[in-house]
Amino acid sequence: MDSFGSDFSSGAAGSGKMDTGMIMEQVKVQIAVANAQELLQRMTDKCFKKCIGKPGGTLDNSEQKCIAMCMDRYMDTWNTVSKAYNSRLQRERARI
Fold first, then answer.
1. How far is CA 29 from CA 22, 25, 33, in A?
2. Residues 17-44: what's their mean pLDDT?
């Protein structure tokens, strides 16, 4: 907890106030990284369970193809859902 507070206090000391815009950008980047990590973890878990029957030292041809297709489908689906979600958010914001 001390390092978190000291990061902000050291940055604020030079200007006399915190740059909220910079802090918001850092938070946005951290959220984007966390979302990407979660996407990768979920995709890995789902595709591994679907495609790998018996874990071993190597993947055979059919497992490699299954993993590639599974990941492609997962990313396509993620992108479709994300676009629909963002579109809906924009429509909701326009109403306000």
1. 11, 6, 6
2. 91
